Amino acid sequence: MISIIQLNDISIKFDNKTIFTNYNNTFEGGKIYCITGPSGCGKTTLLRMISGLQKPDRGTVTYNNLKVLKPLRNIFMMHQSYTNFPWKNCLENVLFPVKYHAPKIHSSDNEISESPTRSRSRIKMFFKKTFLKESSNNNITDDNRDKAINLLEEVGLGDAIERFPNELSGGMNQRLALARTLMMMPEVILMDEPLSALDPQTRNKMQDLILKLHKETGNTIIMVTHDLNEAQKMGDVNIAFS
Question: Given this model, what pLDDT does residue 2 score?
Answer without folding.
Answer: 67
